[in-house]
Amino acid sequence: MRAGGHAITRRRSRLRSVRRRLAALALLAPSLVLLAADLARRPRQIAGFDAPHALGYLGSLLGSALIWAVILAASSRRRGLLRWVFGAIFVATFTLVLGVQGAFHQLYNTYLSMDSVLTSDSFAWAMMGTLPLGRAFVWAHLGTAIAVAAGVLAFAQKVVRPGRAARILAPILVPAVAYGAATTPVSFRAVQSTSADLIYFHGLATLGRELTGLDSISAFTRPQRHVGEPVPKVEARPARPRNVVFILQESLRADVTCSAYDPACDLPARAVNPLLPGRMPFLQMRSNAGVTAVSVAVLWSGVTPTAPRETLLTAPLLWEYARAAGYDTGYFTNQDLTSYGSRLFVQDAGIAHRTSGTELDPTMPEHTGPRDLRLADHVLARWGELREPFFVVVQLCNVHSPYLIDEDDAPYQPQAAHYDAAHGALMRNRYRNAAYASDKAVARLVAGLRATESGRRSVILFTSDHGEMFHDDPGGYYGHSWTVRDEEVHVPGWIDAPAGTVTEAEAQSLRAAREELVYHLDVAPTVLDLLGLWDAPAIAPQRGRMVGHPLTRPGRTTDAVPMTSQTWIWDAWEPNFGMMHGTKKVFAQKRDDAFHCFDLAADPGEERDLGEEGCPDLVAAARREYGGLPSEVPAGRFR
Description:
The chain is α/β, with parallel strands linked by helices.
């Protein structure tokens, strides 16, 4: 009997030991699942962490383990209401973290972070990553996550036997670990050497402080989710069978590239020049804003930057029109779409082929992105996926400050890598080197697509989102979004159409626009006409909101047009408000108490301010136009 008793005791001891190990495994299971998922998604990136980032990552794993272990311990009480309350908290939270971060990473090759959610005006949508819920893979991630969460909870409640002290302490510690999750510093940009759950908690906590007024990190209106109103099925009737390729450069001034073919072109952006000698230039093209978010909203929807917020967020984008007409669609960019809410403007446009900067390189520099040459090669590698007819946008970003250059091929010297007041001229040289390098990428793209059958059937439209300033104006500004002076809004533009892709009448109209004043407001109508949709009765209501005119047809935009970097979906660093009518332009900044007026015909450098009395009608139009914008301008001028 004594031997049998010892055997039973040993067996019970072994069972208790196994149960303790299983309990430890259950408490560690959430963090182990997250670690395994992270290793599966980005093994090379994690393996490449340097020592400080590796230590930070290890520390975040320990913090993650503690957070989930405490919540699970509180959920593993044998009975009582708290068992189910904390169990529900665990399942909901873990499902969101695992599911949302998994889907977001599949979509953008990076994790949802503070950058991704800070501009959101909805905490609930931010918790969901503002993911496109119409996509099956999103529900696959969420469904898998809830199954894993429920399984882990059931396992923990079966094997974890918290003692009396644990039963008392665990519920008390849940708020403490929640606070720690919300306030722990994380590596949320580029390297992301922090566990996915802590990056998620950090982003939502930051947004929560922002929305409740406890913090003001962004304190700016940024692009919100754009959901275009449905475009009815429409028959495309282009004048000639053709594809349309829209190449959008970044920050390229009109005076650093040869929009018109010039055999002696020696401007910085000159690589494309000899490739397309027959292109049709627009030498007087103006952007309607000095900032990308506003500019692309105009380019892709055709509505004015001063349109009501609802219109800006629901007007269909060019891809949606093209898709409704049966075109294949693509959007390739090396911009970080997860920053400043940029992704939200295009995420729901139903684009069939899409690449963003973080997909090319998740550790990309925030503003300049991976190299434009890499984007060009990526587009050419995927070119065969496109089904004709197609509409494709390629958006580059290396010319954004601080300007990504090829250090081994930078002809403009001396230059500086960082801006300060003493090195303005040197930064201008760096900008020129960036334009020089980026244009080589555009040249590679153009040459590559023209070498394909579908590329030879494609009309290419080229422009830049805005220009760039280098103390050209009396205010001494550097960069963009400060004003709507010509340094920021006079941009290059051209269309290249291979033989047979446009009619003689279309070509004649395009050639006639060479010296005429045209605007980015004319780009969407031009693309729609190239797609054969401009005359479609089905889109008449949407077309009625556009004030621009197709450059492929006679007749130009002759009404006064707004130019502003302050809109219902974007706050400028220095709010500015302008109008242009013919060669007259007026604009004002937040600091001004009156409009400036310039006549570009007599004063192309905008050096002689004619004052409000020089453009009375245009000033009156500007006051009417900007009466409802959320500006911070002096009282008595705009609401």
